[in-house]
Design brief:
mainly alpha, 65% helix, 113 residues
Length: 113
């Protein structure tokens, strides 16, 4: 397992690290809340028209994620070093959780689901 200080060259290398940084179920749950809120707010903004809501999306997403990392996981959010891969990984983790396919990914990364 690579430490955060070592750079990842591909998303495929980064993904298991990301999952290990979200090893606690409470951390993942807070991420799911934030990501779900972001998706719902985006849908509401696009469908009903108050596009100003789109400006609040980062706040909604990061609020729950940072509570999870600083309060539950006690680690530094990967988004500080890998902002785009972290965003992609968050949505991937959320989608795999929604579709019931996250468990095998967690096990492959060495995380108990």
């Amino acid at each position: 397992m690579r430490p955060m200080s070592e750079r990842y060259a591909t998303f495929a290398e980064f993904w298991p690290f990301y999952l290990r940084e979200h090893s606690r179920p409470q951390t993942r749950a807070l991420h799911y809340v934030g990501t779900t809120l972001v998706v719902l707010m985006a849908i509401v903004a696009i469908v009903t028209g108050p596009l100003i809501l789109l400006l609040a999306l980062p706040v909604a997403g990061y609020f729950f994620a940072w509570i999870a990392h600083f309060g539950v996981e006690k680690n530094r959010p990967a988004t500080f070093t890998y902002p785009l891969w972290s965003l992609k990984a968050d949505f991937k983790m959320w989608w795999l959780w929604l579709t019931g396919r996250l468990g095998p990914e967690l096990r492959k990364a060495g995380v108990g689901s």
